[in-house]
Amino acid sequence: MSVPTTEFTGHTTDIPGLLIFDVTYVGDDRGYFQEKFQKAKLVAAGLPEQFQIVQNSLSYNKETGVTRGFHAEP
User: Fold this and answer.
1) Which of 35, 43, 54, 71 can bridge 6 by disulfide, Cβ–Cβ 3.0-4.6 Å?
2) For residues 6 and 26, is the Cβ–Cβ distance under 8 A?
3) Dihedral sign from CA coordinates of 73, 60, 4, 12
4) How far, in Å, CA of 48 to CA of 27, rounded?
5) What is the pLDDT of residues 14-59, one digit of tens each?
6) Using the 8-state DSSP alphabet, how is residue 2 labeled?
7) Alpha-carbon distance 55 to 5, whole Å?
8) How far apart are CA 17 and CA 14, in angstroms?
């Protein structure tokens, strides 16, 4: 029996070095589970092997229609 799992699919962009990853989730009537970072799967999907994660955050908005921005520091 196969156990459902999160899958990562990488896509290149017009910006050199910028990749976008589609990430699936596994859900049922109780809710869902999603891996936010799984290095082996991300490398297989195109992430450079030398990439090191520094932070991984998840935000929840109580109201619909809320837009949040990604902030990057050098």
Assistant:
1) 35
2) yes
3) negative
4) 29
5) 999 898 988 888 887 877 888 888 888 889 988 899 988 887 777 7
6) P
7) 22
8) 9
